[in-house]
Design goal:
Radius of gyration: 22 Å
Shape: elongated
Number of strands: 0
Strand content: under 5%
Structural class: mainly alpha
Distance between the termini: 33 Å
Order of helices and strands: HHHHH
Number of domains: 2
Number of helices: 5
Helix content: over 70%
Length: 168
């Protein structure tokens, strides 16, 4: 595929991921408002709104971390990182990425096992299996593996620089 097509596809995927995050946050906000109205205006507290708000918050945070937040937007301590040259930065990236890939790869079977196990438990009001509620963590872990594999690849094989111009 050509670079413009890949760039457009990446932009569409990014916008789609952002749209999902917006829907999750909007759903959480509406459930929160319904909870306020029912509890304080109608004097009829309902529990399902708390379940929806909590699940949407969990999904929004992990969805956003996996698919919306760009690597450059992550919070990190970069005083030392910014003070060294690009070759040392690539070493830092390679070491950090390798460590995180190992941790996520080792934990992935346990994550999947726990989420699968939680299908026997259900939320109190809506009776949604906890495996559905927690399944976002599996997507998050897979996205983190892919992200750090990409960072490791970029650290090992840096982007080619354009050759110097010979025209005068």
């Amino acid at each position: 595929m050509s670079a413009p097509v890949l760039g457009r596809a990446r932009l569409l995927l990014k916008r789609g991921a952002e749209a999902v995050a917006v829907v999750l946050l909007a759903t959480m906000f509406v459930a929160f408002l319904v909870q306020i109205v029912f509890r304080y205006v109608l004097n009829w507290p309902v529990g399902w709104t708390s379940e929806v708000s909590t699940a949407m918050w969990l999904w929004a945070v992990l969805w956003g971390a996996a698919f919306v937040v760009d690597e450059r937007e992550e919070i990190r301590f970069d005083i030392l990182y910014a003070a060294v040259g690009s070759a040392v930065r690539r070493i830092f990236d390679a070491v950090t990425s390798t460590a995180l890939i190992v941790v996520y790869a080792i934990s992935l079977p346990a994550i999947v096992g726990y989420v699968s196990f939680m299908r026997v438990e259900r939320t109190d009001y809506l009776k949604v299996p906890f495996s559905v509620v927690f399944s976002i963590y599996v997507l998050f872990a897979l996205a983190a593996l892919a992200r750090y594999a990409w960072i490791l690849r970029r650290a090992i094989v840096p982007a080619p620089t354009s050759p110097p111009s010979t025209a005068r």
